[in-house]
């Protein structure tokens, strides 16, 4: 069994792959390692390049998805096929520096279960447009999850096998693996790492993914706290809904008794209550759908991706 498993999700990064593997093999050559590269339905020559790397180095294993399933699914597939004692996740866009991997492993040896990279120098000169929103999002995630990290978006992380192997990921939840590990009793820390501006292509990420990330975080919190006692969650929201409805009715009554407006002349409380209830029901339906989806995949041992081809696996 190799000591280190490097999990590498790839999407349209053909230009930089030769340089990336050169850097990776230099950085981790001192270890007993494997690299599990997952081609997430790339439309360029990424998988053809992976074939060449696998033929040259049998410690590189490749998985080719039938189509693009997203980074979380690619990381999930890598985790399911990795066999090492320590799993290292790293992006394929060269923004993560492979030379930081030994530092993460050394920190892991201090007794931690998870070491998360922190790109401290990222977004220099873009404080208002990128750095401030990023800091705000990381603060909010830390506040909700109770796990304080400065850079949840950094893919470069090291995990002990026992805290990550059985994690099944959906949505955009790969960035919350440290949260899950902490909630299960794992010891989490972070380490400043290098940030390298992208050398090839363009970023596949956009600011509009933020709302998806926050929804996934709220779902993760729900699953952790209320999955075995959902009445505490749904009942609490139900009581809140009733209180809002009562407050709206009391306000309408006040308008009537004070002679300002009759019930039928002030539709705002009714409209507000209706919109609140509709929004609440939609959120609850989303949560229930997520639970049903997870039950389907896990009970039938299915995963949210399909594999077209494997090499060296």
Quick recap:
The protein is α/β, with parallel strands linked by helices. The protein contains ten helices and eight strands. α1 (17-28) links the parallel β1 (4-10) and β2 (33-39).
Descriptors:
2 domains, elongated, 313 residues, 8 strands, 8-stranded mixed beta sheet, Spore Coat Polysaccharide Biosynthesis Protein SpsA, Chain A, 14% strand, alpha/beta
Write up what this structure looks like.
The protein is of the alpha/beta class and 313 residues long. The protein folds into two domains: 4-224, Spore Coat Polysaccharide Biosynthesis Protein SpsA, Chain A (Alpha-Beta Complex), CATH 3.90.550.10; 227-299. 48% of the residues lie in helices and 14% in strands. The chain is built from ten helices and eight strands. It has helices spanning 17-28, 46-56, 71-81, 101-108, 127-145, 161-164, 177-183, 210-226, 230-257, 268-299, and strands spanning 4-10, 33-39, 60-65, 86-89, 114-118, 157-160, 188-192, 307-311. Strands 7-5-6-4-1-2-3-8 form an eight-stranded mixed sheet, with helices on both faces. Helix 2 (46-56) links the parallel strand 2 and strand 3. Helix 5 (127-145) packs parallel to helix 8 (210-226) and helix 9 runs antiparallel to helix 10 (268-299). The two termini are 13 Å apart. The mean pLDDT is 84.
């Amino acid at each position: 069994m190799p000591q280190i498993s490097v999990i590498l999700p790839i999407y349209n990064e053909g230009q930089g792959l030769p340089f990336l593997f050169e850097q990776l093999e230099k950085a981790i050559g001192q270890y007993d390692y494997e690299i599990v590269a997952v081609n997430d339905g790339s439309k360029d020559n990424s998988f053809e390049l992976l074939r060449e790397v696998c033929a040259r180095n049998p410690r590189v294993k490749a998985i080719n998805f039938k189509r693009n399933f997203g980074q979380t699914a690619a990381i999930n597939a890598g985790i399911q096929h990795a066999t090492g004692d320590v799993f290292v996740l790293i992006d394929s866009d060269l923004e993560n520096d492979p030379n930081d991997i030994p530092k993460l492993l050394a920190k892991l040896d201090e007794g931690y279960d998870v070491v998360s990279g922190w790109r401290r120098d990222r977004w220099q000169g873009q404080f208002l447009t990128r750095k401030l929103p990023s800091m705000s999002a990381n603060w909010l995630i830390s506040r909700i999850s109770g796990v304080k990290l400065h850079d949840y978006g950094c893919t470069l992380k090291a995990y002990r096998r026992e805290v990550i192997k059985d994690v099944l990921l959906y949505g955009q939840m790969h960035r919350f693996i440290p949260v899950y590990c902490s909630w299960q009793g794992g010891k989490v820390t972070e380490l400043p790492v290098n940030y390298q501006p992208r050398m090839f292509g363009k970023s596949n990420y956009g600011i509009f993914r933020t709302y998806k990330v926050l929804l996934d975080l709220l779902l993760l919190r729900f699953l952790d706290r209320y999955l075995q006692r959902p009445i505490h969650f749904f009942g609490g929201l139900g009581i809140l809904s009733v209180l809002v409805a009562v407050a709206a009715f009391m306000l309408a009554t006040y308008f009537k008794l004070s002679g300002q407006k009759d019930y039928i002349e002030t539709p705002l409380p009714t409209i507000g209550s209706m919109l609140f209830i509709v929004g609440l029901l939609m959120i609850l339906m989303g949560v229930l759908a997520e639970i049903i989806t997870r039950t389907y995949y896990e009970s039938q041992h299915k995963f949210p991706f399909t594999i077209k081809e494997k090499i060296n696996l």
